[in-house]
Amino acid sequence: MSTQEQAVVHVHRDDIGSRMGMWLFLFTELLLFGGLFFLYSVYRFMHQADFHVAAKELNVLVGTFNTAILLTSSLTMALSITALQRNNKKLSVFFQLCTILLAVAFLVNKYFEWMTKIHHGIYPGSDEYLAMESGRRLFFALYYVMTGLHALHVIIGMVLISVMTRFTVRNVITHDNYVKLEAAGLYWHLVDIIWIFLFPLFYLIT
Amino acid sequence: MDNDAATAANDHVSFLKYKGKYKGIRSWILSTDHKRIGILYLMALLCFFALGVTFGFLIRLELLTPGKTIVEPQVYNEFFTLHGVIMIFLFVIPGLPAVFGNFFLPIMLGAKDVAFPRLNLLSWWLYVTGGVLIIASILMPGGPADTGWTFYIPYSVRTTTNVIITGSAAFLLGFSSILTGLNFITTIHRLRAPGMGWFKMPLFAWSLYATAWIQVLATPIIGITLLLIIVERVFGVGLFDPALGGDPILFQHLFWIYSHPAVYIMIVPAMGVISEIIPVFARRTIFGYKFIAFSSIGIALFGSLVWAHHMFAVGMSDTGQFIFSFLTFMVAIPSAIKVFNWTATLYKGSISLDPPMLFALAFIFLFSIGGFTGLIQGALSVDIHLTDTSFIVGHFHYVMFGGTGMGIFAALHYWLPKMFGRMYNLKRAKVAFWIIFVGFNTLYFPMFVMGWLGMPRRYYDYLPEYTIYHQISTVGSWILITGMIIMFTNLIQGLRKGKVVTERNIWGGETLEWTIETPPTHDNFDKIPMISTPPYEYKQNETEELPEEIIH
């Protein structure tokens, strides 16, 4: 595998290296969220009853729906890579667009979910928020911060995939050079995996 | 070793004169050449260092007499915050990896560039943006953060200064540091020259490898912590604010989970530099190569598990304190292994006291003092007496400045002639060294004494009995700065008008950077070298090279 070191090579290309770099970056993303998961576990331990009560205020149906959307988007992402590997550019672009669309659907859902909370007066700084028991308040603080940071990652992922779609259309990404698309795919799966942890922690454990 | 001078086929212009896609300043700030990026870092770094030194100087000046000497308490608080933030995030952390790591890591591995050259440029831009933001926080209304570089909550949520700007600057600098680390890990895994197994890598590369892992694994935690301060200030979510039910101690945990390993991000590359310099100037093969290599990894590993020794006074459980104290003692082992191996390398060597060697020896001396005083504070009972006194200030300046700072100065004297092809004045460099050495000890040693006697750190005012120590210390800062001015003028003059060096192996080193041209060409190597011997073989002064078709 170490044949890319020839003295005459002009364009350096190392797919294994690129993947390795991407995985390292994903580690850092996991650790970024790791800090928040750490806070969650400590605060949950300290305020078990309050967390229990607060979690009931979240809409499990909306959460489940969003989980389904995000899982499907991971599937379409994987399919777009497979399609490209089989040299079917059109199908790959189609699946990439599907992924972006599903991401938008996720965010729209999230928006309405947040808005409902805000209408009920549950947001940092509101009178109701300040009047809560501290455990319940911490639950919602974590809820907003963690799903907010996650939503930010969804947006970054969407932008990333859009760029990849453009690359695919312009043949920068092709069936024998698709490591960029793969990296974007890895990123998207990370966004998915983090949600897979957020969903039970906030919606299901009551 | 001029053994491959015959191959003058492709254009042999040095990287300094190489003509790429861009012209003028853009050929630098948009260059993806690891050598140019290293120099970009160097220039930015020295500017920020000058700024950091200025704030340090002003702190010392204020402490010359009890009560007000030059500024009000608020300004004094801003001074020590800026001094800390600038020195840590802009100077010591990126100091060796970003400047000399960028420049020499690929060369030492026998590669043409790092694994991700464009990412490398991006990390420089992030670094500069972070630096500019910090300067912006000084100029904007509200003034720079006055929380100390530790941003402890709740004060960092209450203060009206520009904590958000300073915090986001530190976030960007952390991002830049992560990208450098990620780049180096991939480079070391993927771009070693054929034949260079892990144990044929130079020790500087090993130290950068260990450092890079800490950068990648620890920095995200400070990222989220700083983000949370910003969120806390903007939205008042209450995750840490005790008034809203949050726990400020948790903030300290998160902060130190990064910031203690960060101390090793700062010191380990310097240890790598020392491991390069000692064998060259003692003309001996390094003693205990594998021990030095693995001790870097050991430091990275243990160093990640000791963060709570910064918090012995906040009220943790006794078991927790005991474990963290024990692990703190454990970290001393890999550090001591290095020191013993360096001294063993010196033993019976033919030592030449050139400027790089002087700084390297100063490193060993000062770092040992810093290390031992660290152990004193690792002991639980003693730490209760010493915590938050100027003893700790003395300790970390001995480690960070006496260690990493001397490591950076040593690296400057060792590698700058190679980078620019001009030599500085050796005699003046030695004079500067001695002034720095004397100034350093005059500045920081009294801090141990007054800290032991109970002088708290970060205080604006003090009792009259501490005056003498503060005054000795302040005079020391003047001596130290004088020495540094002489050193930097000498280096800069050397680069501009110094004797031209074209000789490849300036100091008689055995690593790959001494086999290529001075200054290096754009591609570093005419042919990618084939490695068959360990990096420090002082008996057989030959580097073998194979024709280019021998690549399996």
Q: Quick gist of this model?
A:
Chain A is 80% helix and 0% strand.
Account of the protein in words:
The complex is a heterodimer of chains A (206) and B (552). Chain A has 206 residues and is mainly α. Chain A has helices at 15-46, 48-55, 60-85, 89-119, 127-131, 134-169, 179-204. Chain A is built from seven helices and no strands. Helices cover 65% and strands 1% of the residues of chain B. Chain B contains 15 helices and two strands. A two-stranded antiparallel sheet of chain B has the order 1-2.
Characteristics of this structure?
heterodimer; A: 206 residues; mainly alpha; Four Helix Bundle (Hemerythrin (Met), subunit A); elongated; B: 552 residues; Cytochrome C Oxidase, Chain A; two-stranded antiparallel sheet; 15 helices; disordered C terminus
List the total number of helices of chain B. Answer: 15
Number of domains of chain A: 1
CATH superfamily of chain B: Cytochrome c oxidase-like, subunit I domain
At the fourth level of CATH, the homologous superfamily of chain A is: Cytochrome c oxidase, subunit III, four-helix bundle
- Average pLDDT of chain B: 92
SSE diagram, text form:
The complex is a heterodimer of chains A (206) and B (552).
Chain A: H1 15-46, H2 48-55, H3 60-85, H4 89-119, H5 127-131, H6 134-169, H7 179-204
Helix pairs in contact in A: 1-6, 1-7, 2-6, 3-4, 3-7, 4-6, 6-7
Chain B: H1 26-29, H2 34-62, H3 73-109, H4 117-139, H5 155-158, H6 163-190, H7 203-235, H8 248-282, H9 289-303, H10 318-346, H11 355-378, H12 380-386, H13 390-420, E1 422-423, H14 426-452, H15 467-497, E2 499-500
Antiparallel strand pairs in B: 1-2
